[in-house]
Amino acid sequence: MREIFLLKYGELALKGLNRNSFEDVLLRNIRHRLKHIGNFEYAKGQSTIYITPCADTDEACAALIDAAMPRLQKVFGVAALCRALVCEKDFTDIAARAIPYLQEVLPYAKTFKVEAKRADKAFPMKSPQICAELGGILLEAFPSLTVDVHDPEITVTVEIRDTNAYIHAAKLKGAGGLPVGTAGNGLLLLSGGIDSPVAAWMMAKRGMRITACHFESPPYTSERARMKVETLVEKLAPWCGSMAFFCVPFTEIQEVLRRECPEEYFTILMRRLMMEIAQRIAQQNDCEAIITGESLGQVASQTLQAIHCTDAVSKLPVLRPLIGMDKTEIIDIARHIDTFETSILPYEDCCTVFTPRHPKLRPRLEDVEAAQNAVDFSALIDEAVKHTTKKIFAMRVAENGEECTK
Ligand code: ATP
Ligand code: MG
Question: pTM score, two decimals?
């Protein structure tokens, strides 16, 4: 029994985009995600990507399909995916193979229907005829079933395409969105918290390639805090693809801030300085936008006035995909992408070690600028950028066969 993957990308997603380059990027991302687990052949046509496992035995092919499935579910740009049985373009072959193939699902369902898609109009039977005849054969083979065309538990789909016919019975939702690499590069400000990894995931879902940038303040922040952030990058990589991770030494700037600036402006000035450094790193690394995990009103530095003061230092667009979301909605996504448990580990962040007792909730830009201009930060910013470290997190397979980024 030979199975392949059919991956569908939504037609809507193609609107306004160059279809060929969209498909090429998607295919490149898919190849990249599967290259470590074995050989596959790839073909595309009719808004579908066909992925065929290449191995000597049916068992080995099935194992490749099993291993590929969870990886493919994390590839943005795929609207739906299914394992499908390959048949000859011949109704007798389709009917003969359908019964053993569907043995794993149909005996456990009460209702079903057959759907036929006849892309090859030269096929001698029309779609309603395929549905009626195959439906009858399946009803005979699985007597506990009844047909429900409106709300069936299982939909058996037969697709008649250029070279073969395919049967599948379980279409899974893909990750949706646009392929990573079709919407520019963004520099993510990644803290160890819950929000910023979710922000990365949301922008990657819209096709952005993500580079991460973390500010640390040793010895106020520990090695373990940095490891936690690196674990978050590892967890994002299966969705975002290989990621560069920059770590900016921020201790000196924070110490000068604490010594020289009014406490009530401490957080907002810190965020402006982070933003200035992030701009420099973004420009050096071809990133056209800054991404943060801010959500309106969540904390003092995320009021509209505070956001205005932070944005004032940015020449690049600052994207805040979580701006209108509640914490519970953000947590749901963090759980879905498996970053939540890491994010809640109780290690300190540079923002939390120096928190003012009474931050200004509605800072005025003139006052914030005056407070910042009283100190010359330019040499400190240069130093921080100069001592920023870079690490690449690329998807690999370890000796034990597990996927990782080390
Ligand atoms: P999060 O859960 O993402 O930490 P938060 O609610 O704790 O968010 P803040 O600490 O005010 O909010 O941070 C807001 C945003 O600023 C974060 O989402 C992140 O984009 C950025 N940020 C905060 N701390 C850091 C840091 N140490 N390094 C890089 N970016 C940071
Ligand atoms: Mg935080």
Answer: 0.91
